[in-house]
Amino acid sequence: MKSSTGILTIDLSAIQSNWRCINNQLTGKTSASAVIKANAYGLGAAYVGPALYRAGCREFFVATLEEALAARQYLKPDAVVYVLGGVRPGAEPLFLENDLSPVLFTLEDTRRWLACTQKLDAPPACAIKINTGMTRLGLDLQEWLSLLASEEELRSLRPTLIMSHLACADEPEHPLNYKQLAHFQALADATRSLLPDTRFSLANSSGVFLGSQWHFDLVRPGAALYGVNPQPLKPSPLKPVVQLALPVLQVRELSENADVGYGATAQAFPLARLAVVAGGYADGLHRTIGRQGFGMLDNHRVPVVGRISMDTTIFDISAADIKGGPQIIQVLNDELTVDSWTALTGALGYDILTSLGYRYRRCYLKDGVSIEQESLYE
Ligand SMILES: *Cc1c(COP(=O)(O)O)cnc(C)c1O
Fold first, then answer.
1. Whose CA is nearest to atom 13 of ligand 1?
2. Looking at residues 330-350, what average pLDDT do you find?
3. Cα distances (Å, whole numbers) of residue 243 to 67, 331, 332, 336
């Protein structure tokens, strides 16, 4: 390997298995979509999307028009691509040309979308998002009722999906879960007779594990697919997906006391062995390993010393008796999971994954076999 960057390994088979684990919890006509926004939580949507399609997933959620246009390139035409960020004024033609499905969340949006689709025989699917208690994107319940009152308008809009989003699903006992469920249930009951073919969707990853009442017709897992435990207080039912190995650039054995790193916040003592690895806060390591950071050198736990720099991090490898100098320190693997870093540092799994950045050499595993991403440095 010519490049001096870390190697981020992403196990596509584990992602498929996590999707199946969720899909297997669903009963009747309920199905599982996949949320692949933010480049599949930083892991590479162009690899993750097709892998999920092969696993049987046919409905995908992205955040932006740009992500949706990319998804159209790597997904088969029968995949439905919903855009959580909605359709901005002027973007309608791109949605129509590329069969992209907006998630509409204001009355203005719905009227604008209706105006450009009502004369079409087969417009793209569209979803309507309703705020049931998170107070983020979505029509308020009153606005939804006003839309329900104008039956004609609603029938020509032909929404395929009515959805809402849970604020506290990772805390199973939180009262807001029940409050949001009650609101959503009520609006679904009020809507079904008017729109018998429309489906309903409430649950994200953690929502799936709240129980079947939360499932409705479609669940929308994201984080769980990428190995983040949906129920932090219980053992994870999911497979870890990412491994991160950092190449050692320099090893130094100290012969006298030394200050280590920016700000000289740490000291090391004679006979200590320090390894400087490629990878720093510009690669998201401050999120991943925090202040209490450590890595694994073979089977030895080696602590971070001093501050994490932009491009490098220093580990004290004195405890590891390595002959000939170490090659690599792992900071994410099947034991050192995103969840274990969350427990230790408090950083959210979502934040750890999306902060990993784009300097690593990425390697994708498919049935245990590696497909290397083309590297700029080769
Ligand atoms: C991001 C997102 C999801 C996925 O949430 P996870 O907690 O990652 O499973 C589902 N629905 C909406 C509306 C989202 O924005």
1. 165
2. 95
3. 25, 8, 5, 9
What was the pLDDT predicted at 374? Answer: 52
Q: Which residue has the tokens 């790193």?
A: 261
Tell me the helices (H) and strands (E) count for the chain, helix number first: 13, 20
Query: How many C-beta atoms surround the C-beta of residue 4 within 10 A?
Result: 15
Which of 135, 220, 348 best tests ligand 1's pocket when mutated (most atoms within 8 Å of CB)? 220
How much distance in Å is there from the Cα of 41 to the middle of ligand 1? 11
**Ligand 1, pocket-test mutation among 83, 84, 136, 209, most atoms within 8 A of CB:** 84
pLDDT in tens, 16-53: 999 999 999 999 999 999 999 999 999 999 999 999 99
Q: Select the CATH number that applies to the domain covering 242-370 from these four: 2.40.37.10, 3.30.1050.10, 1.10.238.10, 3.40.640.10.
A: 2.40.37.10
DSSP helix/strand/coil, 69? helix
Distance, CA 110 to ligand 1 centroid (Å)? Answer: 22
Query: What is the residue type of 84?
Result: L
Active site residue ranges: 37, 262
Q: Measuring from each residue's beta carbon to the nearest atom of ligand 1, which residues come in under 6 Å? A: 35, 37, 84, 165, 204-206, 220-224
**Pairing status of strand 101-104 against strand 80-83:** parallel
Give, using CA atoms, the residue closest to atom 6 of ligand 1.
222
From the candidate CATH numbers 3.40.640.10, 3.40.50.920, 1.10.10.60, 3.20.20.10, the one assigned to the domain spanning 12-226? 3.20.20.10
pLDDT 10s digits, 283-300: 999 988 988 899 999 999
- For residue 165, which atom of ligand 1 is closest to its CA? 13
> pLDDT tens digits for 73-130?
999 999 999 999 999 999 999 999 999 999 999 999 999 999 999 999 999 999 999 9
Q: Which residues partner with 276 through β-bridges?
A: 250, 314
Q: Percent of the chain at pLDDT above 70?
A: 98
